[in-house]
Each structure stands twice: as C-alpha cells, then as structure tokens.
From TrEMBL:
Keywords (A to Z) from UniProt: Coiled coil
InterPro entries the record matches: WD-F-box_domain-protein (IPR050995)
Biased composition regions of type Basic and acidic residues, renumbered to the chain: 7-24
GO biological process terms, semicolon-separated: axoneme assembly
Protein name: Uncharacterized protein
Region spans: Disordered: 1-24
Coiled coil: 159-186
Domain of life of the organism encoding this protein: Eukaryota
GO cellular component: axonemal central apparatus
Annotated organism of origin: Cyclopterus lumpus
Length: 228
C-alpha cells in the first residue's frame, strides 16, 4: 500500500512538472492589472446603474425575445387574472437579480452583433461578387483594347505599304509621262519633217509639171511655125 502511494505521488509529481513545463505563464504588469480592475469597476457600475426589473417584466421580455407568443399570452392572461383576484401584488413582486438583467442585455447585444455580422457578411459577399464582375468586365475591356490596338497597328502597316506603293507608282507614272512627252515631241518633229518633205515634193512636182507643159507648148509653137 505504501509502495503504491509512493508510486502514485511520484507519477503525480512527474505529471505536475510536465504540465508546468508545457504551460506558458504570462507575466502581468501593473498596468494590465490596473486595466482589469478598471474594467471590472466599469462593469459593476453599469450593472448598478441598470434599472431593476420585476420578474413579470423579465419573463415577458424573455418570452417575447424567444418568440414564445402562446406561452406569453397564457402568462399575460393568468397574471392579469391573479392580479385582479388579489392573489398577487405587482408592487411586492421580487426583483430579478442584476446578473440576470445584465445577461439578458448582453444576450440582446450579442444577437444584434450577430445580425450586424450577418449583414456585413452579406454586404461583403455582394461586394466580392461586384468586384468579380468588375474584374471580368475589366479583363474584357482590356482584351478589346488589345484587339483594337492590334487592328490599329495592322491598319497603319497597310497604310504604310499603300503609301510605298503609291510613291512607286507615282515615280513610274512620272517616267511614263516623260517618255510620252518625248515620244510626242519626236512625233511632232517627224510630222513636221514629213509635211516639209511633202511640200517640197509637191513644189518639185509642180515645177516639173510646169517645165513639161512649157516644153510641150514650145514644141507646139515650133510645129506651127514649121507648118507656116
């Protein structure tokens, strides 16, 4: 028995040392202690300043918060009947302890906080959906912009090529025009030379004709003279 107790005490000692090693103690400063004291005093002052409430009011509020409407109606009916019969005096009803009133107030604040948290969560979810939609629209617009830039660059390249071709065609047209003007000038010179040659040929033909006619007239005159 003694050996068993000794072994048990040794195990408990080892466990205690192990728990002490695993547990991290945090030192509290005087400022932290003073802060806790101020919070406790504030809570105590809040509880003291909170108005005392009767048991009936406490029950009504509790049943209303729990949405127990049928039970609340039954309580109201029975409580009113008892008050009318004089079985209960509302002025001598015990007051609910402050801690219960404070718990009820804290529970109401907790529900309000949970409701606000749910509203914030829904708002955050809606904001996330809106953000995702905006990001999707931004990506679409960015893609459209990239496509427009690519199309613009392609059009600029086409315009550059067309301008180069136009410059080449303009140079070729200029050369063709020069050749045409030279050919036209040459043609005009050839025409003038031809007309000049035709005039000379015609003039020589007329002269030759006149000479031939003159010779013939002379021969005729000589013939007449001989006949005489």
């Amino acid at each position: 028995m003694s050996a068993g107790n000794t072994k048990q005490e040794k195990d408990e000692s080892v466990l205690g040392e192990s728990d002490d090693r695993n547990f991290h103690f945090e030192e509290m400063s005087l400022a932290d202690d003073r802060k806790l004291t101020e919070e406790e005093e504030h809570l105590e002052a809040t509880v003291k300043n909170y108005p005392n409430r009767g048991v009936d009011d406490f029950l009504r509020n509790f049943l209303s918060q729990m949405s127990m409407t049928e039970t609340l109606d039954c309580f109201q009916t029975e409580w009113t009947e008892m008050a009318q019969r004089g079985l209960v005096n509302p002025e001598h009803v015990d007051v609910v302890p402050d801690v219960h009133v404070e718990n009820q107030r804290l529970d109401s604040e907790l529900k309000n906080a949970q409701r606000e948290g749910e509203e914030y969560r829904l708002a955050a979810s809606a904001g996330a959906e809106t953000l995702a939609r905006v990001q999707k629209e931004r990506d679409f617009q960015r893609m459209q912009h990239k496509r427009v830039v690519q199309e613009k660059n392609r059009v600029i390249e086409d315009i550059r090529k067309l301008k180069s071709q136009c410059d080449h065609y303009e140079l070729a047209l200029k050369r063709s025009n020069e050749k045409y003007q030279a050919a036209l000038k040459q043609t005009m010179l050839v025409t003038l030379e031809r007309d000049k040659a035709l005039v000379q040929a015609k003039s020589q033909a007329n002269l030759h004709l006149q000479i031939v006619q003159g010779v013939r007239l002379g021969e005729v005159s000589e013939g007449k003279c001989l006949l005489k």
